[in-house]
Design goal:
Elements: E1 25-32, E2 60-67, E3 106-111, E4 114-116, E5 120-128, E6 134-140, E7 155-161, E8 166-180, E9 185-191, H1 194-199, H2 203-207, H3 214-217, H4 226-234, E10 239-243, E11 249-253, E12 262-265, E13 275-277, E14 287-309, H5 316-326, H6 332-340, E15 345-352, E16 358-360, E17 363-365, E18 370-380, E19 386-394, E20 405-427, H7 429-435, E21 439-447, E22 471-472, E23 478-482, H8 489-508, E24 512-518, E25 529-533, E26 538-551, E27 556-565, E28 596-598, E29 600-604, E30 609-611, E31 639-641, E32 647-657, E33 660-669, H9 677-680, E34 683-686, E35 690-693
Parallel strand pairs: 12-25, 14-21, 14-28, 20-34, 20-35, 29-32, 30-31
Antiparallel strand pairs: 1-2, 3-4, 3-7, 5-6, 5-26, 6-9, 7-8, 8-9, 10-11, 13-24, 14-20, 14-23, 15-20, 16-17, 18-19, 22-23, 24-27, 25-26, 26-27, 32-33
Region (Disordered): 610-636, 679-707
Protein name: Interferon-alpha/beta receptor, fibronectin type III
Biased composition (Polar residues): 680-693
Length: 707
Amino acid sequence: MLGLSSLNTTLLATDDGMQQGTGAGKELLRLSCNVEARQATGELLVISGYVYNKVDSGGELLSIAQMVNPAGESELIQISQHMLNHSLRRYMRAKYARGFDGEKYAIRIFIAGTELCNAVRTCEVHFTEDESPTATLYLLEPCGEIDLYRYFNQQLVIYAQTDKYLYQLFSGIVDIPKTDYSSRVRTISATYDRSKAVEKLNIDTIHRIGYWSSSIFGEEKSYETKNAQLSDRLSTIPAALDFDAKGQMHLTSWLPKKTADWTLGDCDIYTANMSLELSSAVSIINRVEIELHHQYDRLIHREISFNYRYLNFMSDYDYIVRVAAESPAPKVTEVQSAANGGGWTTGQWGFKGTPKPGYYNGILWRAAEYRYSYQPTGEKDENGRNIVNVIQIPDGSDSELYALAASWKAMRRWKQAIDEKYIITVQNQASIAIHGEKKEKVTYGIKHESENDKTAQNWGNEKHFKIPKGTLQPNGDYCINVDNVIPGEYANGYQVAVQIAYTRMLSSHRQNSISLETKFLPFARLTDTVHIASRRFNTNVKIAAFTHRWDFTTKRGKTELTGKFFMNPGSSATAFSREPQAPVRPTLPCEQYQRSFALKDYVIPYGVEVVEQDPNEDRDDDEKKPEKDDDNPGIGTSAFKLYKCNGYVRKETGDVFKGVKTKRGYAFRVEMPDIEEKSTNTLEIDGSGQTLNLDIPHNEPNPSLTC
């Protein structure tokens, strides 16, 4: 029925001035013991030249040997001590002063190393999950002057001792001395400060507790204390972090162990003051809807191909015989200037120049930049236009000056904000069947800042043409998702969000407690699971709080114990659910666009007005004036819409040469397409929904009333 904790063997001996001879070695301290059944028996400590803790044989528990160099003058070692000797006067011999194990315990109280004896009237020690352990002493003060700071800020240590066992019950600092003049009682309250103990923990220890996500809790550097981070981490796991009477940290699951550490039967439990309390129906949570946003930037690289061929000439000879009337092809510089003026970066250029100098079917040809002179012949055509001779005056010679054909690619890069939304439902059907749906809604965001990604930092600010980078999409774009700035944060943030929800559900189903009084339980700890095997209540519970109380005037002692357990009657689960997997992320859509353009040739009729700028360009949609024949720049005789042209524009001169209306180059335009709004606006996309039916255990208490 009884499983005991390890023996508290922290009490040693002091030898302040042992002198050693030159070169001599002498054993300073040896503690030996025989561990039987539970803990040590026999004399606790004997001090002599050799110091033994004699306990009827056994091996050496601790051996310290000392060698002192004759040149040394300082102490080699000093060991401080509390010497707990036999103290029969302090045993509590009344019926209820006996411990759970039948032993009669002496309660030893030390403040600043000095034992308090007859002055103590009553004493209590209190431990509760996730709180600082406390102790309260009530001392009868003698008449006379009061030393207000006698105990203030001193170390208080409490032990329970018999001839066989020794338990440390509390260690803390006196923080609130209080004096009652009417009863001559000084109240001393001491605390083992849990917050300070947490602050002393190594940060790696904190990191090993629970789950954590910077997207859910914020940057780690924003925590002002370790307690704040620990609190966040504990919100993700069904466990309590506590410090025992020795100040040792323990992380203990809320779920009672299947095999109890010890058992309390009817003979161990006092019949009075036993109470059972269940969770409030209002506080039950059995469904949590999580709206999880995964936000990041998508880097898009788009390329568009352009090509142009002047008048679709099939051969060099065609160009040579027709250039006088039709005008030369556009200059290379004109084509490049027009292509680079649309906000895109161009590259991978290819040109076909005009024919090389030479004879072509008897015609001597030399490519050059020409000035033109027109000589009237005195004749007119049927439309009344002057028939002229065209005189070409070369200003130089360069066959690469003009672009008889041209091709290039235009590149543009930009960022698109992505917001993946997931609806994750965490629930327990067994609880819903009993209590109805008791739900909460929470929203979390996982955000990756692209400014912290090396690739994304200058994306969209390129000054030169770049080759594609990323994954080729069905529409021809190349994309990079900047969704791993914080490595693994999607899966990690999802896990934390689900664990917080699950822990809240578990907590609401764990607010069930059994409170009772028993014989003194010196070995009780918050880490223990106790099997309460009585006619009134029968199940395993995890200790959530306990209080030792002693009345030194009546020599009575007892332990008040509170155990917690899970209640979910419709469930057969005896354990927690495993961690679920994050939903598969959706494939992002890509908008279709025109990936290549073949530029055209346009002619402005003689005498027609040229409209270069779109009149609706700066107007809102509701202010725009409708235009007829929107796609044709040359419709009508009153105006030519230059802004609708995409290619080489020539203008008639009003003359005729060899039966052909003469034309001269007017402009080369490249109309770059706008990026569709769906590819620039924030893309909100619904990820796959997920419903998680997670287990909430049930510890059947088998309650019964006895009359």
